[in-house]
Specification:
Length: about 300
């Protein structure tokens, strides 16, 4: 493949290892006589801007060197449009706290292997999810795990915790005072109304560094998977959530799974000030602010982008 490769590195991903990995990728591509440009995203949202710049410069491949958050920003910079001839290929060099996107696709974590894959031109078409106007690659969540994500993102967890451990710490801190939101969820074939612990929409089966929240979800099946965990006693939460590591939570009577192409969600008004608005998180990033009695939509964008694979 004759490629102009545009590499976007997140310098804080993986405790800074993305800088070293991205430089090694530049070297590996050079040995294969593939030209590349390396840019560093110095602030939140800059990876999205750099992806737009890559398109303007006519890059054939955009490499995300970081975690799921970096992938999230780049796919939103690309603004995927199925059938478009101008969309560049996406390649990923996993270097983040959570790398569930690359894990789901069994992508290489070696700069040398990724350079060879880019050179060979092997690709795979994948779906993306879309909530409101925001694309996502892995899982979008509403409810308890989003509240925990807010807490972890604020930097309140101890510095020596990362990945799953930081989320488990946040879970224990936020659970005692958690207010269960009341929602209306309508899919192609079902309607749910009630209080939930959480709802998760999966384009992949996992998120958060390995939580198997939507078992069976596939990134290329043209569907999104919905997992709803209804309100349960707080002590019961401590029993159910560890089972998510292995996808065993689905056997609980308060858990339901289904697939869909289109879905709408409404946060119902209550007398709880905490529920006047809540954030939907996707790929570990804030994606959409859901306000009371306002509708937000989810849909699948089938075969949205092509990803470099081995």
């Amino acid at each position: 493949m004759s490629s102009e490769v545009f590499i976007i590195a997140n310098p804080i991903a993986g405790d800074g290892k993305s800088g070293e990995l991205s430089n090694k990728l530049v070297e590996a591509l050079s040995r294969l006589q593939v030209s590349s440009t390396l840019k560093t995203a110095l602030s939140a949202g800059e990876s999205e801007e750099l992806a737009r710049l890559a398109i303007v410069e006519g890059s054939d491949v955009i490499v995300a060197c970081g975690g799921d958050g970096t992938v999230h920003e780049i796919i939103n910079g690309i603004k995927p449009c199925p059938g478009s001839k101008v969309s560049p290929l996406l390649a990923v060099l996993p270097a983040g706290r959570c790398n569930d996107f690359s894990t789901s696709l069994l992508l290489p974590d070696s700069p040398v292997e990724l350079a060879a894959a880019i050179k060979s031109g092997h690709t795979k078409k994948i779906d993306l999810g879309k909530v409101g106007e925001t694309f996502f690659a892995t899982v979008a969540t509403l409810g308890f795990d989003s509240e925990v994500a807010e807490y972890v993102d604020s930097g309140a967890t101890p510095f020596f915790l990362s990945g799953i451990l930081s989320y488990l710490y946040g879970l224990l801190i936020k659970l005692p005072k958690y207010q269960f939101p009341e929602v209306r969820i309508r899919t192609d074939s079902s309607m749910f109304r009630g209080s939930i612990l959480l709802s998760a929409v999966g384009n992949t089966d996992r998120y958060g560094g390995g939580f198997l929240i939507c078992p069976g979800a596939k990134i290329d099946d043209g569907l999104l998977h919905l997992c709803i965990v209804r309100q349960i006693p707080r002590l019961e939460v401590l029993k159910v959530l560890p089972k998510v590591f292995f996808g065993q939570h689905v056997s609980h009577p308060k858990v339901s799974l289904e697939t869909f192409s289109n879905m709408s969600v409404v946060l119902e008004s209550t007398d709880k000030p905490e529920n006047l608005s809540v954030w939907i998180w996707a790929d570990g990033e804030r994606a959409e602010l859901l306000s009371a009695e306002e509708e937000t939509t989810f849909k699948v964008i089938a075969s949205a982008i092509s990803v470099v694979v081995t």
